[in-house]
Structure formats: C-alpha cells, structure tokens
Known about the structure:
Dna Ligase, domain 1, D-amino Acid Aminotransferase, Chain A, domain 1, six-stranded antiparallel beta sheet, nucleotide-binding, ATP-binding
Amino acid sequence: MVNYDREAVQRVLAQVAAEGRDSLTAPEGKIVCDAYGITTPDEGVSTSSEEAVELAERMGFPVVLKIVSPDILHKTEAGGVLVGMKDAAQVAHGYRTITANAKIYNPNARIVGVQVQQMLPAGQEVIVGATTDKTFGKIVAFGLGGVLVEVLKDVTFRLAPTDRQQALSMIDGIAAAEILRGVRGAEPADRDAIADLITRVSDLVTDFPQLSEVDLNPVLATPTGATAVDVRVLVDQNAADEPTRFSQQEILAAMSRIMKPAAVAVIGASAEDGKIGNSVMKNLVNGGYQGEIHPINPKAAEILERKAFASIGDVPGDVDVAVFAIPAKFVPQALKEAGEKGVAGAILIPSGFGETGNHELQDEVVRIAREHNVRILGPNIYGYYYTPEHLSATFCTPYDVQGGVALSSQSGGIGMAILGFSRSAQMGVSAIVGVGNKADIDEDDLLTFFEHDDNTKLIAMHLEDLKDGRAFAETAKRVSKTKPVVVLKAGRTAQGAKAASSHTGALAGNDKVYDDILKQSGVIRAPGLNDMLEYARGVPLLPTPKGENVVIITGAGGSGVLLSDACVDNGLSLMAIPEDLDKAFREYIPPFGAAGNPVDITGGEPPSTYRNTIALGLADERVHALILGYWHTIVTPPMVFAELVVDVVEQYREHGIHKPVVASLSGDVEVEQAAEFLYRHGIVAYPYTTEKPVAVLGAKYRWAREAGLLEG
C-alpha cells in the first residue's frame, strides 16, 4: 500500500473551493504531485525579476520560466513559457517578457508570479493523464507527449483505478512503443518508472474524484526515471457524481421475472389487425408462451379469446411483465397502475420520448418506475424474445429456434436484421432484446441475467452508446471469464465530439476510449454488423484452443497467402513447424507441394491427401487450431471435401481431441452447399472468402486469451 499525503491535497482543494476556482496553479500542482510521489523538477515561484534570478542561481542554470496565473491555463499560447535561460541576465529579461505577454493575452488575468523551474536533460516526452469520461467515469491515458500526442493521437486508455500490469500494457499498447524501448542506439526509457507514474495518477483521481482532469504533459522519460515537467489540474465537483446503480441481486431478481414471467399483461391490446397491440397479443399467443396473458383494453370484453380488463389493476393474481402498446402520453398513468400492481418489468414499445427530444416525459416515467420498483425496458423498442419460455413479447415476427446465443440491439432496424439473420442461418438463440432509449435497463443488466442463464452460452450486443460504461465494463469483465461477449459499437468516428480544453480531455471521448476499455473488459469487438452476427453464430461452435499454434493446410497457394494475411490481421500466430512435423507432412504431399506453414498440398491431390494432412494436424498436440483452404477440383469435389473433413474431425472428437477447425472454400457454386454442410457439423466454413473464417477463429482466440484459457 503506497503512503500518500492526502491531507496535503485536501488543503489545496479546500483553498481552490474557497476561492471559487476550477483549476490549480502550478505551485498547487507541485504540492499535489509531491503528496502522491510524482516526481517534478526543482522549482519555485518568483514575484520579481530579482527573485527569479535568485531562484535560478540556487537551482543552477539553465532554467525554464513559466507564467503562474489561475486565469491562464495554456501558458505556451499566452507567450508565458521561456526555455533554456542560461544566465541571470536572460532570467531577468525573461521575467519581464512573459509577465508582459500574459497581460497582453488576458488583461484581466490575475498574475501570481513566474515559476522558475530546473531544466532537465533530454529524454523522451510522454503524456500521462486522467480525465472524467461521460461514459466511463475516471479513465487514465498514456501516449507520446508534447505536440505529438495531438498530431498522432497515439494514446491508450484504461479505467481508473489502474494497477501496474494494466499500466505496463498501456505503455506497450501505443503504436510508438518501440521508441520507448530504444531505437538506433538510444537507451530505453524506464518502463517501471512510467508505469509507477500512471498508477499514482490513477490513485490520485480515484481518491479525489472531484479532480476532473490531471494532465502531466510533457513527462520526461529517461533510462533512470520519469519526471512530470508540466502539471495541469482541473476541479469540478460534478466530476464525482455517479449514476444510480442496482446490486447484482436486485438486477437478477427483476430480470428473472422479466425474462421468465408467469403472467404478462398487454396494455393497449387490440383485436384489430395492423395494430401494435394486436401483433403483440398474436405473438404471445401463437408463439407458444404458456404463462397467463392478460389483454388490457377498457373498450373490449375479449381479445383473442382472452378476457380483457379495463385496467391492469383489475387483473386477478400477480403480473410479472406489462407490455405497453399505447401512445407515449398515456404511459405515465398506466405505468403508475402497473407499479401499484407489482409488475417487475415495463416493456415500453411506444416512441415519443427522449429520442424525439421529449426528455421530460422520459424522466417522468423513470421517476414513476423508481417509486414503484419497476424496471423499464425501452422506451422506443420492438420488444424482446426469450425462446426457452417461448416468449415473443414483440410486434415483430415470432422466433422459436432455440439455442445458446443472446442478442440485443439499441436500434429496431438492427433488431430486425438480427432476427432475419438468425432465421436465415438457423442460428439458435436464447434471447433477442431491444433496449432502445435505455431509460433504465441497460446492457449491463442484460449481461448480469445472461451470465447466470444456463440457456445462454454467448452474448452479442449492438450499441450506440453506454448509459453507464463503467458498470458495463465491470460486468463484462466478470461475464467474459466464462461466456464470450461480442459488442458492435456503432458510431466509431469522432464527429460531433466537443473540443476539449486539454490534451488528455481532447483525446478522451473518442472511439479509442471504447476500444481500449472494451478490450480491457475481455469483450470481443466486432467491426460491423455481419461480423457481430457471424461471431455470434460461429464462436460457440469452435472448441476453445489450448494454445497459440495455428496451422494452415491449403490446396491453393494463393489462398494460403491470403489466409496468412488474415491470420496477421486477426492476431493469430502461425506455428513454426518443427522438423519432425515438417517431415511427416511431406510424406503426404507431392514433391512440388510445400510443407512449412501454410502446408500447400496443391490443387490436384486426391481426397486422401486432405484427409491425411488434416488428421496429422489434429493428432499432433503441438498444433492447436487448423485453417483449411479448399480449392474446387474434379479430383476432390466440394462435397467430397466437406464429408471427408467432417469424418476425420468427428473421428478425433470421439477420441477426446477437440480443436477449432475453420475452412475457406474457393470454387464454383457447389462450394456453397459444402460450406453449409461443414457449418452444420461444427466446422466454421465460408465460400468465396479467406477473411471471414479466420476472423471468427480470431474472435474465439481473443476471448480465450482474455479469459485466461490458453496454456502457457
């Protein structure tokens, strides 16, 4: 446990608050750094040119001069920084110059004085910072410092608090990490010192969440340490605010009733075709749901042969879920009645809330829900499916192919695409859920339920934002240890991001934050909709690999090259074939073929060559995954290839050998049937593409690595 002088920081922040300021002066920043063991250069504040000279002579030339003013945060822009003052005359003249520049830049600025700072020897400039992200809360950032961070945006992010291991991964995670390791004879920077600095900044903002930004830029990284040359700290009491959160037990209790209801009421049920309330009723009835279904409509006595009630309060017995199919303006009163009835979940299908700018109405229904302990799904959604209960609480078409994939979407259109793909690919699902505006129930609520749901083996989510990114990240990190979590994050560009007031702030809020933190949470990020769906379909079929050694066996050299490229793109490691295994492969391939990796058996080989080489790869314990590249020939037609692959793979499965096998099939249209046959037998296969099967395998590997399932 590191000993920090928290009382010193508290005194500084109390003074800042008393003066109504939102930033620390440089001397105050120095106090904070000293309190948390953050190394800074020797420095002092002068209020005259004579005092500046005295300070410079005490610490030794050369020195740096910086204006000290709570009203001037960007000192360089104000002409308030002079570097390399070599003697007393330069220091005295420099003092007068930068104070004059500051008054020109901001005539009303309060000038505390001029900071005289020891000038350090050369080193690599990096940035270490922390900011308050609107989605994830406190995050720490690391990258190349100075102007490079703005130009290259080569930076990594992690949630705070951050430990040493994560800090080291941040250092190694930037594209320019090689610079810090030393290039062209330069000595490497002290990684341990940089990592220590990152964790200290992380601890600082964790201990004092009212610190909205801490910006150390540049930090001078040398072979013997890391020194924060410039310190900038912003304060905002609102930065300490946290969203309302429910406990795991509370989430599970509510979500279990929502996903497995004993009774469902449809508020706005209708007997008229074309009405949403009619479609919801038909899907519940025709979908095979066995629980109680109660239509709520004050103008009807019976709907779909079920007694209708004027109000949900009139329904005898308990009701777990109320599906709302009424205009938005009528929702508050109906929700109040549902809350008084004791429903666990309100499924708000109607639009007309926050998505149209009507935030007051949305806030009102959330307030009512909180008062009555009701969880809201939506509003502005298509509903949801839970196939183990034959539950289609939606106005979309029903779906009944049960399986282990749970999917969610923030968009109704994407929800329909998910439904269509699932039906077309015959992908068994446990659930499909629309979350819409996410006024209440968010992806972390769904993750918590699916984590404990024995019917769910993989969770795939389309999202445009996260209401509480920290809760999602923490939940996903836990869930992904046992079940793959696939995320399609829409809105990957930084358009619309507000210009920030500092280097760290400007870098946060973009897609890189999502990318880094999702990865930190063990999430498989999908680049596009089809990728998400194919990962959802294929990853559960693939056995978990035991190690990193991937071998390509191909009948076409061109496919082998493309498959190799795809392996690199997806972070897969092509095995360096040992001499004995190379010799064994050569026993089965023609002299003009190529062992090594890829193993090129050439296109004219009979089925036995495919069979023997695949069997060899499956039998050798040093090989952990196989990628097959098939080329359509009359010697080995597509279905012959598919059937022999299934036969040999199943033979080894019967003997307890389970390795992921994926296949790329090139050829005429017959390869489509062959790929479908392979897929049905647990071998992820695609026609006309080398990239897609490798991407699915790569997704499996990313999950297995983060879950700690790979040996070694």
